[in-house]
Amino acid sequence: MDDEEFLGGVKVPGEGIPLNLSRKGDEFIIRVGATELMNSTAHESEDALAHLVCLRLKHLPAPVVLIGGLGMGFTLAAALKELGPTGKVSIAELVPAVVEWNRGPLGHLAGHPLSDPRVTLHVGDVSYPLQVKENAFDGILLDVDNGPEGLVRDSNNWLYTEEGLASSYSALKPKGILAVWSCAPDKSFEMRLRKIGFDVEEVRVPTRNEEGAEKNTIWLATRD
Questions:
Q1: Predicted structure pTM score
Q2: Which of 43, 46, 114, 173 has the most CB atoms less than 10 A away?
């Protein structure tokens, strides 16, 4: 990492773990501690998360989507592209610095999606809109932490408990879709989704557009 340029760092709210942004040439990297959390050269699975859901919502006259986790803006940008001019996206990002990074050095990567008038930003935990909204969203996209096995913040795990999934279920409109990104499969999580009442489909997507690349998991859970 000697040839990397440090661009900024903060502590994860409530955890005290360092979250750092750096650049290596044209490549941008966000790390939690010493672990790489995301990389600007590998966002195929983030694009797929938005594509898989929003493609199924395009028939709606004015689809409304909630995204948990801003990251480097790729999921948000892909959702806006798929939803079209009448779609609306609410995005919740816990870490204020991540928002500022997306308005600053990271903004060009995804085409400055936070500047789109169809976007409403909530700087805070995505659990808040999930718990206060009912029948509000046609789609909910969770790209929070490392999936059901938290890496950044222990309290993120609530989203993947039966209580958290029940909140997502209630926040969706009938036939709405919850999509959850994860770095790996998790059969127990799939069972929890089904227990809440979701119809579940598991999709494996590559981390890079390369043959033999490692694959991430996306669950598509439809409110029955």
A1: 0.90
A2: 46
